[in-house]
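Re-running the complex after MR caught last week's input typo. The corrected sequence lines follow. Everything else is unchanged.
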Amino acid sequence: MSDLTLTKKDFTSDQEVRWCPGCGDYSILSSMQAFLPELGLPRENIVFISGIGCSSRFPYYLNTFGMHSVHGRAPAIASGLAIARPDLTVFVITGDGDALSIGGNHLIHALRRNVELKILLFNNRIYGLTKGQYSPTSEQGKITKSSPLGSLDTPFNPISLAIGAEASFVARTIDSDRKHLTDTLRAATAHKGSALIEIYQNCPIFNDGAFDIVKDADTKDASLLQMIDGQPIKSATHGVVRNGNSLEVVELSTVDESQLIVHDSHNPDPSYAFSLSRLSGSALSHVPVGVFRDVERAGYGSMVHGQLEEIIGSQGKGDLKKLLHGGDTWEVH
Amino acid sequence: MPKPIVTLNSVVIRFAGDSGDGMQLTGDRFTMDTASLGNDLSTLPNYPAEIRAPQGTLLGVSSFQLHFADHHVRSPGDAPDVLVAMNPAALKANIKDMPRGSTIIVDKDEFTSRNLTKVGYDANPLEDGSMDSYKVHAVALTSMTVGALSELSLSRKEAERSKNMFALGILTWMFHRPTEATQKFLEAKFAKKPEILKANLLAYQSGWNYGETTEDFSTSYEIAPSKMQAGTYRNISGNTALALGLIAASEKSDLQLFLGSYPITPASDILHELSKQKKFNIIAFQAEDEIAAVGAALGASYGGALGITTTSGPGIALKSEMIGLGVMLELPLIIVDVQRGGPSTGLPTKTEQSDLLQVMYGRNGESPAVVLAASTPSDCFEMAFEAVRIATTYRVPVFLLSDGYIANGSEPWRIPDVDSLPAIPVEFAKTQENFQPYLRDPKTLARPWAIPGTPGIEHRIGGLEKADKTGGISYDPLNHDFMVRTRAAKIEGVEVPDLVVDDPTGDAEVLFLGWGSTYGPIATAVEALRANGQKIAQAHLRYINPFPKNLGDVLSKYPRVLTPEMNLGQLAMLLRSKYMKDIVGYNMVRGLPFSTAELIEAAMGVLDV
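Corrected-run output:
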């Protein structure tokens, strides 16, 4: 950390923010702008790269470097940038359609490589920018313009997908919970490799209330299973216990506190985080929030540069003349 | 009594066998030994897309053709003087190309009734008189190889694998090639397998001895070195030359080379070569797909690296949207397309020039990009260097077209003097007040290359239409019209050298105008036509978008323009639409380069009008 003293205002661009009134993206943007000074990084060393979709307008509103790219490809572009420029802090802003449908391939490969990217996946479970078609996280049976009889697709669980893709850091948070969102950003930026944060984000126009159960004062405490390292995983009414090889949610009144699973995001076994990710279904009656997994693994960019340093260190920097004269040569006089 | 030695001016040899027989390696070795003798040469590998097609079938035949001479050689030659056929399939697949009187060496051990039946021979062609018009050497290659290796502790199958070296030994004797380099090569290749090394060396030597002693081979041949410009030479394929050109440009521009690539035939060797040269501080990123490959290259370029992606036609199709983003972002980006037969998967291992219109127009919107085309294996070096110069000077995507023929074909390359290669000056935007990311250089129309990490010039860009100068999002109709025209004007204004026309008599009425890998066959045909008293001019386009400024004048000077293309007339279409000039096309898409003979015939058709 340097002694830079920047403020939220320093990270706010001069662009007028153009999301729909009430969009969850506003609160994520505001939390991000307020959080960035905490990193102590100069603005010019921060880059936001997005794909296409409502959330992907995000970079325009931050006074850092930014690129609004093409649909689904932000992790690929950001990988190139982060690998070439290890001095930069690179965020990827994406949505459920952008990251999990058209760009699914890039997401999983960035995660398995562990490229130094902080990927914020705004999950509103709908296509917003194209005005309301079902997305890869929409619940089965969802009625939308493109699924008038109900969607037949089984949704992705983005957390399970990320863990399956060998992600070294996976977390879930909620747009409107500023403190939790900021804590999650803090943990993700402290992590060295890829970090994926799924952010439940309300679309007030095409999927309003999708996350009410985890946001409304009278239901959220019961539905949110808080994952805090060293503490038992539980909501106000329920807790997580082991059941054979997997985990299950039970009423707190039916078990002793000592039977609850004590959270350890650093557990090297991905099946632990995976089991946690399976506790939430489409109905969101029990939703683990916080960091599922945070394990140390060499970052891809640092390995790339390590290889370069090693080869140049042992063989010296390449000599162009020698290279061109490589192989069998002969002289003509 | 010593055997007579005959001096020849030029020879074409084709090695053909099963794709597991090591024909490419055999051809390569013969080529290297020939190059070191100072002959000029040109090669044409031809192999199936299948790594190991069923053994002994026509589908599995792999071949390597080499043309070498005591004079300048520009094409791998039409018809072989010598065919080495390792089995009946190789004979059957290649006999149609062999002129009467030519020499055919076969492995007679392979001509069993089972193998003959497999490829549809009713009778053994070595015995039924059907090959009486050729000089046939039916050599027991397999059994002699096995016999020569009987002292070694190898299985019969392992011993048989060295039969290509036995064949190479015969040819090496026959054409007086030196043996030391191949022996050294084998020693390096099999350093960790001493028994296999012994087998290969022994087979090679036995083949040579067989040529020397047997009465079957009564004559050997000499080909004097070619008169070539003084300098240091190496034999080089287009893919290697292209990779070296990119590295040279990275060094001369002082930009870190970032390659984003996905393996694809016939471009993968560029990825291999650049991956091998990491001590030049090269990042070679094998991406998850073609889109990510170009995306990562563009992201790296945004960060101030030299972003490059290499692929073939199907890869370009996938990359199109990202290249469009490159057009919008106005960042340097080099896209190498080593063309192959299409559409779709097409003919992965065969050559074609059918991506020209794809790279010109295969993107949504008005999306202009620079298009260059290499004409020979060694020209791949120069054009790769040019691609980098143009991309970094004008901050634009640049396509560099190569194709399977020059990518895998090889020729002697006069190694350029490193110090004489021009520097490629690159300037990044500096810290400044009121930075405008789309404020252009008035001369080049390039926008600043403004890379993250530079304080005070933080800005946002993207695929949405940009406002002039500020680069903000703009939906203004007039601004869009202006920006579309400006991007087009920028490409149109890229400075490229004038087209050089070779017209020795100055009054030719026919211009042979080609592009890309047709250079060799066209130049050979032109030479033959001129030797026959025909007046004919020749020019070759290496810059296709923009065209050289003098192209219109050149076209109007010649009443008839003949353009051979390995497509159905893509360059001809561009020329007709831009210059209102009729073009006589000669178009073939057989997956092979043109033969000199057919181009001479095509030219005669135009000359006789």
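None of the earlier attempt is carried over here. The first helix of chain A runs from residue 24 to 35. Residues 83 and 301 of chain A are 4 Å apart (CA to CA).
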